[in-house]
Design a protein that fits this description.
This protein is mainly alpha-helical and 172 residues long. The protein is built from 8 helices and no strands.
Length: 172
């Protein structure tokens, strides 16, 4: 995949990842529970939500880079055709450090750079930080699974996610 296409796909992964929590929070108890869980783990709520979004974007991007490595197209169309359950399963099937291969060569801004740096640090930490990383992964998986289960279609995709975000006026 060339860098221009990769950059476009990464940006779309970031956009979609920022829509996940507002979509999942249609059931407000989920947000309250997530915030309590962040606090219990010593995470500031905004930082925890940004890290969760970073993990989700890296997971989506990992799936697309895997497709490119297998010789399949790795454009926006491929991302939009990717089933949400495949992304959820990727969290389970990967080692922590494997998500780092999906990180962009250059971050879009300081916040994204910081979130990617924190993600990198969490990937190689032990003890409490390893538990935080595992928690974030479980939340990413549960978020994609929950959104997939809400769908009226048999296999909800990232394209459906984009449509739901658009209908909720969450897209830039």
């Amino acid at each position: 995949m060339n860098s221009a296409h990769d950059n476009v796909v990464w940006r779309e992964c970031r956009v979609l990842s920022r829509c996940l929590l507002p979509l999942i929070d249609q059931e407000t108890w989920r947000r309250d529970r997530r915030h309590d869980d962040f606090r219990e783990r010593g995470l500031d709520v905004p930082e925890g939500e940004r890290l969760l979004g970073t993990f989700a974007a890296l997971t989506m991007h990992t799936v697309i880079l895997d497709a490119a490595a297998a010789g399949r197209p790795a454009f926006l169309e491929a991302l939009h055709a990717t089933p949400l359950h495949v992304i959820a399963q990727t969290v389970i099937n990967r080692r922590d450090y494997e998500f780092l291969a999906a990180a962009p060569a250059r971050a879009a801004d300081d916040t994204e750079e910081r979130d990617l740096a924190v993600f990198r640090l969490l990937t190689y930490q032990t003890g409490h930080a390893a538990h935080v990383f595992a928690y974030l992964g479980s939340q990413v998986r549960a978020t994609f699974d929950t959104l997939a289960s809400r769908s009226r279609t048999t296999t909800a995709t990232c394209g459906d996610l984009r449509q739901w975000a658009s209908q909720a006026k969450l897209l830039p």
